[in-house]
Amino acid sequence: MSHIKKLTSLATDHYAFGSVSDWIHANIGGxxxxxxxxxxxxxxxxxxxxxxxxxxxxxxxxxEVVVSWRIESHDDDDEAEGALGHRNGFYLEVRVPPNTKAxxxxxxxxxxxxxxxxxxxxVGSGCHEWFVGGFV
Length: 136
Hints:
The protein contains three helices and ten strands. It is of the alpha+beta class. It has a single domain, classed as Sandwich (Maltose phosphorylase, domain 3), CATH 2.60.420.10. The longest helix is centred in the first third of the chain and has 14 residues, at 15-28.
């Protein structure tokens, strides 16, 4: 019986589980290393389907890299903007640790064909924010 239990626990450590996690972090969360050691990172979230927000983070040797994005869409944009200062669209917040650079690709639109990105920009350490109005 212990032999079967041991095989079952080993099966959950299979590479396939790690590759799924890697895909989720890199595509949905938008966070991946641009070079070994995370001295440079690539940030390119790809919103799709019914996913309207994601948070991804990684503790690198230089500190924590954080990506947070959300799509906000309210039926009555004028009322929401007046009352709460809200704007419909895509919000991206990035935190880059000291001595690290990030290449950021911000989505500008999406369709059934996929997500179209703005030109990538390189940023240094610190907190950075982007907003794309009308992104739904």
